[in-house]
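Project standup — Tuesday

K.O.: blocked on the structure for the chain from last sprint. Re-posting the sequence here as requested.
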Amino acid sequence: MKAVILAGGLGTRISEESHLKPKPMIEIGDFPLLWHIMKIYSKYGISDFIICGGYKQYVIKDYFANYALHNSDITFDFKNNTQTVISGTFEPWTVTIADTGLNTMTGGRIKKIEKYVKNESFCLTYGDGVSDVPVDKVIEFHKKMNKIATITAVKPDGRFGIMDMDGTSVRAFREKSSEDTGWINGGFMVLDPGVFDYIPSDDQCIFEKDPISKLAADGQLNAFKHDGFWQCMDTMRDKDKLQKLWDSKQAPWKVW
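H.V.: unblocked you, prediction finished:
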């Protein structure tokens, strides 16, 4: 099974870093967030990736073209104009980076990679979110339910505090918890090829709007509820949170 990763957006809400690189290439630790996502899938035996590139996609292509350079000890012999990889860790990955357009929306990007997944079920997720979701269980659930699409539903931590009030009187002020929020689309989806019938050939198609709504209306959409860790990286605050977890060696998404 292949994993498709949406990595072409502008990342305007984290422009402090995304003005230089695509958001999925922002580093947590010494590795881009995209690498972290791929390692999650690799843990569950998924090693064939299709990356939907767009904004500054050349940064993604350069990273994988020079993967050994980024992750190995290398000797450069300038006298003989050679370079030798001495040691390093190499992933058993096949990576296809597809140019899905600069301003293409999510549905348009998915439609453009249909030729790469062909007539097979595939995983799909966003290039800015990590989780300890058991991918194998999501796939198993998807097959059991026998519908076209499965979304991993998560309850994110709240960004703002909650005021418990009695009329106009504030009784308590507390941090917002996941119990205060509803289920949202956390990515880590599994899709059958029939999903392409729901996506028009339109670069402005937003997958999370008409296609998903039609799938739901036709009874073809499942939700795998995951109450574990999930975190997207929309802002510098999100990045700092992920970085602190990684530095403390308590990153819940590090399942490998």
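K.O.: great, moving the ticket to review. The first helix runs from residue 15 to 18. The longest strand covers residues 82-88.
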